[in-house]
Amino acid sequence: MTSPQHTQKHTPQQTLTRSVVLPAAPADVWSVIGEFHGLGDWHPYVPPSSVDAEDGDIRVFAVEGKVVARERLLAPAVGPEDHAAYTYTVLDPMLPITDYVATLAVRPHAEGSEVVWSARYRSTEEAAAQVESVFGDGTYGTGLAALQAKFG
Q1: What is the pLDDT of residues 82-138, one digit of tens each?
Q2: Is 62 left (phi over 0), alpha (psi -120 to 50) or beta?
Q3: Can you name the residues that pair with 115 across neighbouring β-strands?
Q4: Stated pTM of the model
Q5: Got the DSSP string for 66-110?
Q6: What is the three-class DSSP state of 129?
């Protein structure tokens, strides 16, 4: 029988990245997306989050009073005003993944700014296809499309 630790060591590292270029200054874009607890304010499919009462670095998403996801802020926005990012981890992954760490970043671009939403995690190849669909297209892609509509 294989232990979970043994399996995790042999589960490949996967990556996920989506990005969009916006005709707006990085500081203007960051003013919309830069609040860790404000994802539901600008993302059309993410419910508003609340701050965990015991740990302010955790955002809690609930639907009809039932917690559906929790994410912990690992690294708040850092860097110069024109390049900012925050990094977080998913505490209760809904998919068969481990070690999920994502970053939402804004950086300067010749046309204004580029928003990059990326993650690294461990999973099987089969689960990686689910992550591409659910997180990559569903969460990241939809959120970036909403920003494009707002700033485009």
Answers
A1: 679 999 999 988 889 999 999 999 999 999 999 999 999 999 999 999 999 999 999
A2: beta
A3: 20, 106
A4: 0.88
A5: EEEEEEEEEE---S-TTSEEEEEEESS-SSS-EEEEEEEEEEEET
A6: helix
